[in-house]
Design a protein that fits this description.
The chain is α/β, with parallel strands linked by helices and about 260 residues long. The protein contains 8 helices and 8 strands.
Length: about 260
Amino acid sequence: MNTEIKRVVVKVGTNVLTNKDNRILGPVLRELVRQISVLYEEDIMVILVSSGSAMAGMEILGETTIKDKSIRRQVYSSVGQPRMMRHYYSLFNDYGMRCAQVLATKRDFDIGKHRENMINCYEGLLSEGVIPIANEDDAVSLTMSMFSDNDELASLVAELIDADRLIILSDTDGLYNGHPDDDDSKLLNTVVTNQNVEKYVQASDKKEGEGRGGMASKLKIAKGTANKNIPTYIANGKRENVIVDIINNKKVGTKFISA
């Protein structure tokens, strides 16, 4: 295990946490927590940025009569967030660990008292060995000032707590030099931030509730975070032991490093 690494931000997307029927996958959550517990035993603290609350709420409520998309998202997220935390609380408890919920809006990262307050919250939790689980506070976030997606939130958290690594878990193995489904496409193991790899990004259509971040967003965030001297990975969250393998410097996913 890399002894220089002490803090890691892991972002897990909705597509990792759900199946084709948009239902939350318990085994994926358990594997995620298991890996965090492995790092914890090596004195590496993980901050988990977890999507899935809107989908979890949608699974409970089903179709709603609310027409306004923003209000609908607020309702789904408000219902789904405690459900996600119940899952996480139970799983971390199984591994003898503690977790906490940290909901943020974009203004919490503005320079000044809001940012200082956020730093104090994270530092306090980490000092007590508590795993912070972060998400956007969709219930009160204003549409015009929302995070572009949880990839952006994860990057801001990584910078906030001076993380040693940012790991963005998606439903693909990383960045390819073509469409991931093409046999001729190859996975890019390492990307330097001044490389023009944007041409490889394929557009994807997402349904409501599936999350706001695609590969283009992940690529932008990964490069921006790496330029702040935080090596960043995009990897497949459904791959067994993916987080631990990355920390052990195995060739997993796509690593982004500063030029």
